[in-house]
């Protein structure tokens, strides 16, 4: 099923015409309404009338997270506050949060986009949708809620926390869809198992997961434990929240809502476009947002985009699952490594649970990396000698792939902290 075939299966030539028309109107709008953009465009020597085709987007300056921080809280809004009906915010780990605003029309657009994502993942009006994203300044709860309501599903806004009650309600209400982060879904599955819950006997059939990376292995684990089919969806507060891109049932990339967002993939070092289909940093320009438009917003998320036709009939381009973020990159004794590389090694090894934590510290002048990994109960209860040999084997495999020495510590199942939001995989204790 496609929620809005007129746009989701649009002829790509027509799409480009629509994008250009919207881009031209947007650039004019922000130039006149947002002093920040006027200043940046003037500095770059570009006027709204210079945007004659889509390629001209390259003439516009990028927007980065710090630009949004510097204008905290409402400095980037393109409409007066009386037109703003909602604000959300992204916490970030340091400094001031980023605040975004929505007009009534933006809220309407947003639910259209999350409706698309939900339907692409297999949801429909008959579904009972258990919303286990947080409601609040985080965009996940309210954003997905509106889309599911719009398609006519019965939404149960449980929010996060109290996992046992979450499972009880899931059972009693006969939820057919779970909407959450993949780490929280895995936690729900594990708590369910320990409560003796038989997910196979429950009506739950789909998972709409997003807001953080979910490797294929982790997806399989959740699907297996909960007896569901799960899809991945992507978004970020600065662009709108969830609803930027969502996987269809072909599960081969996330369809980007290109009628509302113009997508570029750039080389994070040079800022130039990468060749089509190559990996780079994904950059978004909102084409229809009123209160908080962004121009060439650098997400720091690394992925690749393909325009190849998809089996589902949508013509919207697909982004591959996010591989990592440019700011995830750890520099260990001069070597660049991404947490997803640890994961790719770990998840190939039998007996490893999908819970791990990377702890980086500095001893004297040396960086020290410790990797805590949960192993299956069966393994953990085995012989010490075997456990130690297993640790050395993992260290060896990591060394081959990452080129650094990692100190692996196997830990008992269920000892690493669980979360109802996004998992924290890296703890960097270095004072860099
Ligand atoms: O996480 C919005 C969202 C909510 C998306 C619910 C999907 C579902 P932020 O909190 O601003 O917004 O975080 C945005 O999270 O730049 C990515 O690094 C990461 N992220 C979001 N979705 C995915 C995903 C929401 N499906 C940041 N896969 C983004 C990997 C994701 N990373």
Q: What attributes does this structure have?
A:
single chain; Rossmann fold; four-stranded antiparallel sheet; nucleotide binding; binds 5'-O-[hydroxy(phenylacetyl)phosphoryl]adenosine; globular; nine-stranded mixed sheet; GMP Synthetase, Chain A, domain 3; alpha/beta; ligase; about 425 residues; phenylacetate-CoA ligase activity; nucleotide-binding; EC 6.2.1.30
Description of the structure:
It contains 12 helices and 21 strands. With 432 residues, it is an alpha/beta fold. The chain has 2 domains: 1-326, Rossmann fold (3-Layer(aba) Sandwich); 329-428, GMP Synthetase, Chain A, domain 3, CATH 3.30.300. The strands form 5 sheets. Strands 4-3-5-6-7-8-9-14-13 form a 9-stranded mixed β-sheet. It is globular, with a radius of gyration of 22 Å. The relative contact order is 0.11. It binds 5'-O-[hydroxy(phenylacetyl)phosphoryl]adenosine. It is an enzyme of class 6 (ligase). Residues 87-284 form the AMP-dependent synthetase/ligase domain. Keywords: Ligase, Nucleotide-binding. It comes from Candidatus Aquicultor primus.
